[in-house]
Amino acid sequence: MADQKLSALTELAATPAVDDEVYIRDVSEAAADESKRITTANLLASKADAANETKYVLKAVTETVNNSDVFQDDDALKFTALANKFYHVRVWLLLITTDAADIKFKWDVPVAADIDWINSGMIGASFSGKAMTYSAAASELTISGTGTYQILTFEGLLYTGANAGAVTLQWAQYTAEVSDTEVHARSFLSYRLMN
């Protein structure tokens, strides 16, 4: 086969074997000087490392809860986790709630999963409840409302145990009140597979 750029390849004659080699030639080298090569297995292994990159989930639409202290799944801030894995999870929220309603959070995770998480920063809010919850996805984090926009960040370490499944941020008003509690668009969740 004549020299081609990888981007110009449209098909393979056969599925490559793991010990097949891809030759690499710098543009400054002559065609006969193809001295660098990588096996298909090593090339694919380098792609597998991309699974450990940080992934982001952006909330595109503002979500509102009014007069409800019942936890509900966030429409966007969720991801699917693999079994027997550790994940570093971070959340950045732009929210608004009144000082009467406040806002509370918890996680819905696969059966037998644990998450150690902590409130790691706030702007425009005061914090109540536990500063850290240990291995208890159902433990609540409560934030006092101000009636103005607030930014909240928290992060944690998730271990899924034997079960894969959805990891979902849940939230509600702490005290049901006829007022809007909103988690705004531009909020996001990030997660990274650690093992």
How does this structure look, described?
The chain has one helix at residues 40-48, and strands at residues 21-24, 36-39, 55-58, 63-66, 72-81, 86-96, 103-108, 114-123, 126-128, 132-133, 141-144, 150-159, 165-172, 180-183, 188-193. The protein is mainly beta and 195 residues long. The protein has two domains: 6-50, no CATH class; 55-193, Jelly Rolls (Sandwich), CATH 2.60.120. Strands 3, 4, 6, 8, 10, 12, 14 and 15 form an eight-stranded antiparallel β-sheet that branches. The two termini are 39 Å apart.
How many DSSP-defined strands? 15
**Helix count?**
1
Helix content: under 10%
Q: What's the end-to-end separation, in Å?
A: 39 Å
Instruction: Please state the overall shape, judged from the principal axes of the Cα atoms.
Output: elongated
What order do the helices and strands follow?
EEHEEEEEEEEEEEEE
CATH class category of the largest domain: Mainly Beta
- Which class do the helix and strand fractions yield? mainly beta
Number of domains: 2
* Residue share in β-strands: over 45%
Low-confidence stretches: none
Largest beta-sheet characterization: 8 strands, antiparallel
Name the average pLDDT.
Answer: 83
What does the radius of gyration come to?
24 Å
Topology summary:
Layout: E1 21-24, E2 36-39, H1 40-48, E3 55-58, E4 63-66, E5 72-81, E6 86-96, E7 103-108, E8 114-123, E9 126-128, E10 132-133, E11 141-144, E12 150-159, E13 165-172, E14 180-183, E15 188-193
Antiparallel strand pairs: 1-2, 3-15, 4-14, 5-13, 6-12, 6-14, 6-15, 7-11, 7-13, 8-10, 8-12, 9-11
